[in-house]
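Usage

Read records sequentially. Each one opens with the input sequence:
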Amino acid sequence: MDTKSLIIDIATTLFQKKGYKGVGLNEILKACNVTKGSLYHHFPNGKEELLIACLHSMNEAITMDMEEIFQHYPSTQTATLAMIEKLVVQFDREGTITGHTFSSIVSEMASLSEPVRNACSLLYTKIQGIYSNKLIADGFSKETAHSIALMMTASIEGGMMLCLTQKTSDPLKIVSHVLPNLLKEV
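and closes with the structure output:
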């Protein structure tokens, strides 16, 4: 792995676990075993530019994973349940949900930085697009699919945040029982 990718990979994990403000530049440098000069070579505008690169990396990883799940299952309902089950298993195994949640970064930084807000918005738009496209394929109208996709995004993201704050996978389990009512095939 090249230095830039290593920095993005490690910083992404640190940002997800501790938040943007909870991770200092020195902690990133130490965890990556790189110099300040090396970090600024790859990210001339510093920590915020690194965060945006991390969000783009998360965007790619999250959407690839979701697209794979949604292509594998025949309906939105079964794909969504499989995706939530994967999140529950990860939370129960690791006590956290890394790789899929970036809500803490959004709540912490999106109002302070327009580039960060835009990167977060792009990821949410892609997630909703995956849901919406599958719903349309299931026979929902475009308008209904977009509305349900928004509700799915809000429910699942909210469920992940509640899991993290309550230290239990129960919120996602509840979402997986309630959400299918919205997803009944037409």
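Summary fields computed downstream for this record:
- The radius of gyration is 17 Å.
- The chain is about 75% helix and 0% strand.
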